[in-house]
Q: What sequence folds into this?
């Protein structure tokens, strides 16, 4: 899984950021606190909801190709990531049993040809589905206590891609300011720049067929600690789960989750950190990663989401 890394020295360019180890638990912020922002989010209740692919997907991360115009939803609330492209299967479906009361529609996300179009790498690749946020309301300053939540349905284990590793991600786009020093010969020049990074969750599957586990299991991983390392969290069972993330005014990211579809509470706190040693300044959006073995024939695990929402205190 590719992710932004904190590098102290790169040939002629290095980033200086002081790691932050102390976590103030009093700064916790339960996701869903405050006002639900109606300009963003989706409940998938519109029977005419549709994804518009717009041709071959983007793969800027692999080969610098965006292949515009990129895909989008017909309600303009979702867009294809220009960095990694869109999942191949984005479809409004009937809400599975046990979902939010009264919900009739949810969104199924699944991919087959992740990575560069027409090229099967034989390695794990991922595609991204991103909620339109900054284009509709702008980035949200952490002083406004932004947060997000989503209900996620995990299918029975016999429906999962038969591969041990990361299958799905639910992450946020956060931004901070760093000092970048560029060195040339005996001189160096420092400047401030905005750095984006992506804390969040990964759902990891352990297949009983690989001989390392007696039975299939799924684990929730949190990215991450002050170095960006993943932190092992809940053991996941098939069915509905509620996950959320918040960013408090001190720049900490707080992770919450539980089984079922009820709103999150303080009892559902899983972890708090300054991922990568960064203090967040802005919350830009939340998004989803669909991961599979890019062999041209193996579909990713079909994950269903419902009612992804963004909140702020003001």
A:
């Amino acid at each position: 899984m590719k992710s932004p890394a904190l590098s102290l020295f790169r040939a002629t360019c290095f980033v200086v950021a002081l790691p932050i180890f102390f976590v103030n638990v009093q700064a916790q912020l339960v996701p869903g606190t405050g006002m639900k922002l109606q300009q963003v989010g989706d409940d998938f209740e519109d029977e005419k909801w549709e994804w518009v692919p717009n041709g071959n997907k983007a793969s800027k991360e692999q080969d610098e190709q965006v292949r515009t115009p990129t895909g989008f939803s017909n309600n303009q609330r979702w867009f294809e990531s220009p960095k990694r492209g869109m999942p191949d299967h984005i479809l409004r479906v009937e809400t599975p049993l046990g979902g939010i009361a009264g919900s009739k529609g949810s969104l199924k996300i699944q991919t087959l040809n992740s990575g560069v179009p027409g090229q099967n790498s034989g390695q794990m690749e991922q595609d991204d589905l991103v909620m339109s946020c900054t284009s509709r309301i702008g980035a949200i300053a952490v002083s406004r206590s932004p947060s997000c939540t989503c209900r996620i349905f995990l299918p029975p284990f016999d429906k999962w891609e038969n591969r041990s590793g990361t299958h799905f991600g639910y992450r946020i786009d956060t931004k901070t300011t760093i000092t970048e020093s560029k060195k040339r010969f005996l001189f160096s020049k420092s400047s401030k720049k905005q750095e984006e990074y992506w804390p969040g969750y990964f759902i990891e599957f352990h297949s009983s067929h690989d001989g390392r586990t007696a039975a299939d299991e799924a684990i929730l991983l949190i990215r991450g600690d002050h170095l960006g390392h993943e932190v092992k969290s809940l053991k996941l069972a098939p069915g509905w789960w509620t996950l959320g993330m918040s960013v408090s005014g001190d720049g900490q990211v707080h992770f919450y989750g539980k089984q079922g579809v009820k709103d999150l509470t303080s009892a559902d706190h899983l972890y708090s950190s300054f991922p990568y040693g960064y203090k967040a300044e802005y919350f830009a959006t939340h998004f989803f990663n669909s991961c599979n073995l890019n062999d041209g024939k193996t579909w990713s695990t079909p994950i269903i989401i419902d009612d992804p929402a963004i909140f702020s205190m003001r």
